[in-house]
Design a protein that fits this description.
The N and C termini lie far apart (74 Å). The protein folds into 2 domains: 142 residues, 3-Layer(aba) Sandwich (Rossmann fold), CATH 3.40.50; 115 residues, Nitrogenase molybdenum iron protein domain (Rossmann fold). The mean pLDDT is 92. Strands 2-1-3-4 form a 4-stranded parallel β-sheet, sandwiched between helices. 43% of the residues lie in helices and 15% in strands. The longest helix has 16 residues. It is built from 12 helices and 8 strands. α8 packs parallel to α11. With 284 residues, the protein is of the alpha/beta class.
Length: 284
């Protein structure tokens, strides 16, 4: 017979950190690593408000996240009109170089065909529009890490172009802190290596005090630099937990025949030695 008191005595409390299960949250962080870019969440207003509030309290930096603001009608009949209106408003108010559209649970659950909606919007708008990338990021499909890497894949897959070979490296640092990215950049600069770091939020999420308000903080990887990733001599991806066939480096390898190296985070003697040995082959 089960003793209820013994069960309760040995029971443990199970909690879930909702932030670690929020795929669009990771997408919003990665988008901060692209210069003059802004995120538009295709879904309800609450998602954008929650993520913005959480990131601001963590990084102590101003963060704007747009939303297509689903209503009851949009939930039933589709949010195409909301999305096109949101894109026009964001373009007018922020004048971004790139808009990243990340879906939420609501838009994914009703089966929104965001790719088709984006193409229809681009045909309707005759004037020059910012670049648009799209990520499928429902929170029931993964964690904040999946959302982060979805942005990196979408940016590299959508923006990278072919061209004359360049003596530069593509660096995908993974989901690390702004200080980690800053240190990686310092290492690459000391070795006199040309590189494209994606994403680079070392300034946008850890910047100085402003003298004047900026709608979009300065810093991040320029879109023009991302476009040259297909011309780089090699790609270095950090993080052994990534599926080697589902990464931005794999996209560049398959499309542009770019060499790809997947290493662990350079923490500890073994991984650090591997990282520096690889960098050494591209110096001189």
């Amino acid at each position: 017979m089960v003793n209820e008191n013994e069960v309760l005595k040995n029971a443990s409390v199970v909690t879930t950190n909702a932030c670690k299960l929020c795929t669009p949250l990771g997408a919003c962080i990665a988008m901060k690593g692209i210069e003059n870019a802004i995120t538009l969440l295709h879904g309800s207003q609450g998602c954008a408000t929650y993520i913005r509030r959480y990131l601001i309290s963590h990084f102590r930096e101003p963060i704007d996240i747009a939303s297509s603001n689903f209503t009851e009608n949009a939930t039933i009949f589709g949010g195409g009109l909301n999305l096109s209106t949101g894109l026009r408003n964001v373009t007018t108010q922020y004048q971004p170089t790139l808009i990243g559209i990340a879906t939420t649970c609501l838009s994914e659950t009703i089966g929104e065909d965001v790719g088709t909606l984006i193409r229809s919007y681009q045909k309707e708008e005759a004037e020059q529009q910012p670049y648009i990338i799209h990520m499928s990021t429902p929170s029931y499909k993964g964690t904040h890490a999946e959302g982060f890497h979805a942005v990196v894949r979408a940016a590299a897959g959508t923006l990278a172009k072919d061209g004359p070979p360049r003596k530069q490296l593509n660096i995908f640092p993974g989901f690390v802190s702004p200080a980690d990215i800053r240190y990686l950049k310092e290492i690459l600069t000391d070795l006199a290596l040309e590189y494209v770091m994606l994403p680079d939020y070392s300034e946008t999420l850890d910047g100085p005090t402003w003298d004047d308000y900026q709608k979009i903080p300065s810093g991040g990887t320029p879109v023009t630099a991302i476009q040259t990733m297909g011309c780089s001599q090699a790609t270095i991806e950090l993080g052994r937990t990534l599926d080697p066939e589902e990464t931005a480096g794999a996209i560049l390898r398959d499309r542009f025949k770019t060499l790809r190296f997947q290493l662990g985070m350079p923490i500890g003697v073994r991984e650090t030695d591997l990282f520096f040995e690889l960098l050494k082959t591209f110096t001189g």
